[in-house]
Specification:
The complex is a heterodimer. Chain A is of the alpha+beta class. Chain A is built from ten helices and eight strands. Chain B is an alpha/beta fold. The chains are: A alpha+beta, B alpha/beta.
Chain lengths: 331, 144
């Protein structure tokens, strides 16, 4: 290979690594918007079941916040998975319309639509409570009544958006991820693990293989703490044969498989600020999350896989959880 | 004779009066509820209330105007404002006009009860004049 060819190839790899870093950072932003949406759900739920005094303005403001955050999430998704953008925006428009209809209904027709469950809400017959109950059912199907939601929920749509993003990030066509494999400098020798420093490697690629023991990322160190600092045999589960990529910064870790047949992704922020720290995990159906995760995670199931998250957690809980996950994955 | 704490509650959202009246009745207040600010002001002209609780944002007359009216007519009356939004300009305005306290929606009935008890104490009501327990740790708490 001539010098020109080598330079061209190196330039493509550098650009691919940069794209990979940008994707990872953007995905974190995407998760933050998803988290804000979950916070909206939780706020509404707390006010509904916590005997709060609220008025219509409050309910409308929660619905508006959900629409706004959902729009930001869809925008992030359209950047990460451009081929899905049009379909996602079309579905988002339907949810915007559902929100407008909800606000226009003013909680006045709930008894007609859910007459079987009227007894369940007999002590919550104010229009404001009915409107909030309807909003909660639209959010995630969990209002005052147990009647199934008669339209797709925001949570259903969030899952759809997640899958579109996951398919783009972890699919075989992601050129940015391929660039990681092509650059041997990010490889942690003998451990089937590529380590990308999100803020350094985008500027200059490492020239020699990375030593895991030199990585300063707090969550990464916790992940491998109980595995002797090295990635060993991955046990009996479906991730046994996988190679991995870990994108890291001092307080962030984004871990995913390089094998599209077994998709697993872990995202965590361990900054020490409980209100922003989290662990998020997605695994396809080939992976048994019940075995991999410690207790305390909220888990959502879907046809294509499972999502699990733990929000507002202390540094200790994050550290302990990562050690358990690391042991189960690599121990 | 034990004096009852007279409270006027004004909010154009019916849910507020419906939910709060029983909560305040429970601690021994006598509560009159209004949704129309003009009717409330007419009642204030007739009767000296110990405490007026009013929403800030209303269609015909806002809470600041109600506050000004109460203070001109009955300077001893304590006024508590309910805010639906973080309206700092309105809040600053009200602070300058001598409002007793604010409470922001959404809130729990207990949150308002505590402010009512503080206002009652400022008016010289003994804690046992209301249906409350003795002061503990500098705070008066509501009987369960």
């Amino acid at each position: 290979m001539g010098i020109l060819e080598k330079l061209k190839r190196r330039s493509a790899t550098e650009s691919g690594i940069r794209d990979f870093c940008i994707q990872t950072i953007r995905f974190k932003k995407f998760l933050e918007n998803a988290r804000s949406l979950l916070d909206c759900f939780e706020d509404g739920r707390e006010k509904f079941f916590g005997e709060y005094i609220f008025d219509r303005h409050y309910v409308v403001s929660v619905i508006d916040r959900v629409v706004e955050q959902l729009g930001m999430m869809v925008y992030d998704a359209s950047v990460l998975a451009p081929e899905s953008g049009e379909a996602l925006f079309a579905a988002y428009d339907k949810h915007k319309l559902a929100a407008e209809n909800l606000i226009a209904s003013n909680g006045l027709d709930m008894n007609n639509r859910h007459s079987n469950s009227a007894a369940a809400i007999s002590d919550r017959d104010d229009p404001e409570y009915r409107l909030l109950s309807d909003a909660l059912r639209w959010f995630n199907g969990k209002g005052a009544s147990d009647a199934p939601a008669d339209q797709p929920t925001v949570m259903d749509f969030m899952k759809q958006v997640f899958f579109a993003v996951m398919a783009a990030l972890d699919g075989p066509d992601n050129a940015a991820k391929q660039a990681v494999i092509e650059n041997r400098g990010t490889f942690a020798a003998g451990k089937d693990l590529y380590v990308i420093d999100l803020w350094k490697d985008a500027h200059a690629l490492p020239k020699t293989n990375r030593a895991v023991s030199d990585v300063r990322s707090v969550p990464f160190r916790h992940l491998l703490m109980d595995t002797g600092g090295e990635k060993g045999d991955a046990g009996q589960h479906s991730l046994k044969a996988c190679a991995w990529v870990a994108a890291i910064s001092d307080d962030q870790l984004s871990l995913s498989t390089l094998n599209p047949a077994s998709r697993f992704r872990l995202e965590t922020l361990a900054s020490g600020y409980e209100s922003s720290d989290f662990i998020f995990v997605f695994a396809d159906r080939s992976v048994n999350l019940d075995v991999l995760l410690p207790e305390g995670f909220h888990v959502e199931n879907s046809e294509s896989g499972r999502f699990a998250w733990n929000l507002d957690v202390s540094a200790k809980i994050i550290g302990d959880s990562l050690m358990v996950i690391g042991r189960n994955l690599f121990g | 004779m034990k004096k009852t704490l007279e409270v006027l509650l004004l909010d154009d959202e019916p849910i507020v009066g419906r939910r709060l009246k029983p909560a305040l009745d429970k601690i021994g207040c006598h509560v009159e509820v209004f949704e129309n600010p003009k009717q409330a002001v007419a009642r204030i002209n007739e009767k000296e209330f110990d405490i007026v609780v009013t929403d800030i944002r209303m269609e015909e007359m806002d809470g600041i105007q109600v506050l000004e009216h109460v203070q001109a007519k009955w300077p001893r009356t304590k006024v508590i404002l309910i805010t639906g939004y973080a309206k700092m300009d309105l809040a600053r305005d009200a602070m300058g006009k001598g409002v007793f306290d604010f409470i922001a929606k959404p809130f729990r009935p207990d949150d308002l009860r505590q402010i009512i008890l503080n206002a009652a104490a400022a008016l010289g009501f003994a804690p046992n004049g209301l249906n409350v327990t003795e002061k503990t740790g500098g705070k008066t708490s509501v009987k369960s």
